[in-house]
Amino acid sequence: MEKKFEKLVKENEPLIYKVCRMYAYSEVSRQDLFQEIIIQLWRAYPKFRGESKLSTWLYRVAINTAITGLRKEKRFRPTHDSHKLPIHISDATPEAEEELLGQLYTAIEQLNKIEKAIVMLYLEDKSYEEMEDILGMSQGNLRVRMNRIKEKLRQLTNNK
Amino acid sequence: MELDDLKKSWKESTENIPPANNIMELIHNKSNGPLAILKKRFRKRLILLPLMVAFVIINLSRHHAIFSDALFWCFIAFCIMMCGYFLFSYRLMHHFKYMETEVKANLERQVKTLEKIYRVRLIIIRAFSVLYIVLLEVLLYYNQEPSLVKWYAQPLFIRLSGYAAVLVILFFVSKYVLNHKYGRHIKYLKELVGQMQ
């Protein structure tokens, strides 16, 4: 079972690390969160019967752990430092666009934890049905929230 | 720049995953989350409390006839009740072991469980305080405690005022202490649930 689990985690490591990047602001915190998610996945693994999609199961465990399973981090200070952005921006991105992307990432960092989860699943192109399965919010509610988040991000980036 | 413009770069992003992550090593580590810490705390108390009671019994029994002392038995009953509470809480924490449920359901379950733990503890502390005071007064008519002769010599009004003061202080202190331990986390979880409405 351990080998099977290791393979599963290796295949989905980028997904887990994206969650860590979204919720933890320092490298140490990201490592802590990564470890915590792996421990929780391992505990939940024997109960995984494939009733839901693997990605749904992974996201559930990862998001649950990220928002409740880690000790509170020091208050977040918004930053434009590209090293601290949630993901690495491709080198091919033109400078102006990179600047705008940076602003958008900083704005995302200022969202609350639930909004971050919704944004992350949206960026992953998850359907509202799957988002409902992961978060437990109704599809109608998710659609409304998504529109509000987009508006919020627009305002946050325009204020820069 | 819109959120949809971010999708491409998000998907193309290559995370710099530290190579030191040995999955098989990580799964053998102990969880360091707040819930795991709380569970560990209950387990520790479940072990330490009987040891502490045994230590008190051994030491007191050398100097006093404690086994015929009603207050002593009340103290023992309180300790047994607290042991029961720690065991009950420890078992409840097992519900938090798995994180594979929907996020909202998981948050609601955590709130419900932690509120239950908080409420039971508050009830135990307050109920035993009242019981202890009642017992003190009842003992006055049956078997006066040598250590409390001075207290029993006070007028009833003074004694009642004293009990009332103790109860009021205990009411606020227990609320403050438990709020410090659980209240803030429950509030945080409730805020998250609220964000999902």
How would you describe this structure in keywords?
heterodimer, A: 160 residues, mainly alpha, Rna Polymerase Sigma Factor, Chain: A, Arc Repressor Mutant, subunit A, 2 domains, 8 helices, globular, B: 197 residues, 7 helices, elongated
Description:
The complex is a heterodimer of chains A (160) and B (197). Chain A has helices at residues 2-11, 13-23, 27-44, 54-68, 95-109, 113-123, 128-135, 139-158. Chain A is mostly helical and 160 residues long. In chain A, α5 (95-109) crosses α8. Chain A is globular, with a radius of gyration of 16 Å. In chain A, 39% of the residues are buried. Chain B is mostly helical. Chain B has one domain (19-195). Chain B has helices at 3-12, 23-26, 34-63, 70-92, 103-142, 149-152, 156-195. In chain B, α3 (34-63) packs antiparallel against α4, α4 (70-92) packs antiparallel against α5 and α5 (103-142) packs antiparallel against α7. The chains are: A mainly alpha (160), B mainly alpha (197).
What is this structure's SSE topology?
The complex is a heterodimer of chains A (160) and B (197).
Chain A: H1 2-11, H2 13-23, H3 27-44, H4 54-68, H5 95-109, H6 113-123, H7 128-135, H8 139-158
Helix pairs in contact in A: 2-3, 2-4, 2-6, 3-4, 4-7, 5-8, 6-8
Chain B: H1 3-12, H2 23-26, H3 34-63, H4 70-92, H5 103-142, H6 149-152, H7 156-195
**The CATH fourth-level homologous superfamily of the largest domain in chain A:** RNA polymerase sigma factor, region 2, helix turn helix motif
Helix segment tally of chain B: 7
Largest sheet of chain A: none
* Straight-line distance between termini of chain A: 50 Å
Q: What's the count of strands of chain A?
A: 0
The sequence of SSEs of chain B as H and E is HHHHHHH
Overall 3D shape of chain B: elongated
Oligomeric state of shown chains? heterodimer
In a few lines, what is going on in this structure?
The complex is a heterodimer of chains A (160) and B (197). By secondary structure, chain A is mainly alpha-helical. Chain A is 68% helix and 0% strand.
